[in-house]
Amino acid sequence: MPEGHTVHRLADAFTAIFGGHRVAVSSPQGRFRAGAQVIDGRVVAPAEAVGKQMFVPFDVVVPGAGSGDVREPTGDERRWLRVHLGLYGAWTFASDGSHDVVHAIGAPRKRVSETETVLPSAGAAPSGVRAPAFPPEPRGQVRVRVLSEHAAADLTGPTACEVLTTAEKEAVVARLGPDPLRADADPERFVAAVGRARTPVATLLMDQGVLAGVGNIYRAEALFRARLDPMAPGRALPAEVVRSLWSDLVALMQDGVRTGRIVTTRPEDRGDGSPDAGRSRRRGAARQNSDDDPGVVPREESFYVYQRDGLPCRVCGTTVALRELGGRKLYWCPCCQR
Fold first, then answer.
1. Domain termination residue (choose one: 112, 142, 172)
2. One of 2, 135, 178, 180 is an active-site residue; which one?
3. 267 is annotated as an active-site residue
4. Per-residue pLDDT at 292 exceeds 60
5. What is the DSSP string of 194-260?
6. Is 323 a catalytic residue?
7. Which one in 55, 78, 214, 244 has a CA-CA gap of 20 to 30 Å to 282?
8. Is 149 among the residues known to form the active site?
9. pLDDT score of 114
10. Which of 172, 207, 242 is the last residue of a domain?
11. d(CA 152, CA 146)
12. Over 60: is that where the pLDDT of 29 sits?
């Protein structure tokens, strides 16, 4: 499941590619036909991310008082496409090769889910080679297609996909905890919620009603960096410790938005040369979008404990532990986090 930084990157990409453009919206799969009809032909306004949910506003073009004028639509006229990718959802972008679209998403075709993967180009073909058709044929079970003159975005496999009024969108947001990546987030809401709970702090960090946007990787890594026992009850933690945890998550997730990858290790804790480092490449290990790029921190050095069960802790050498908690895998160091 994508962590919050990926959803914020996705919202930025949507705004850069479609913002201000009138778009055609359809449902090739057919399951979202009614919702697509509501927003088809509207203009995309800047998208928002709140935690793991993206909200894309669609405005009608409303005539103003003068000839050719356009007035701002009211909140009642705006509609929002709410998407939660969940475990299997992903967006695939394609373009006709125009420069602005390519620059905005880094490649003419990109898939954005838990990882960001460049797919075969939909742009200009080499001399003598027939260029791929634009828009491309839908691949797989496409729930929603958003299409402008130069770009297309296909949504597959989301957990949630619906059209909301502004009031309905605000009601959804009100049920979420503060998002460390939003400038309007109130960290004291997080501090207060943790301070009231007997629940283990590891569970609280994954509760989107307590903290929006943190997933399994950030949960494990932030707790290790704070040297916190994952099973400690929230109410047992001093408020200043919880505030420090929030601040660290803000910094880590902002870095994730900038780079498109999660790196939580400090430079002095990387590259220990241990022979087990390659084990992080085992089947099922999380892959990042720039794993093969030169000059970046390699995947096997990016994390302290996440997916490093059975390996020595980078700080103390104790074997990293693994257990199930709330249906998700929890990784921690029994020595550093006690």
1. 172
2. 2
3. no
4. no
5. HHH--SBHHHHHH-TTTSSS--HHHHHHHHHHTT--TTSBGGGS-HHHHHHHHHHHHHHHHHHHHHS
6. no
7. 214
8. no
9. 61
10. 172
11. 6
12. yes
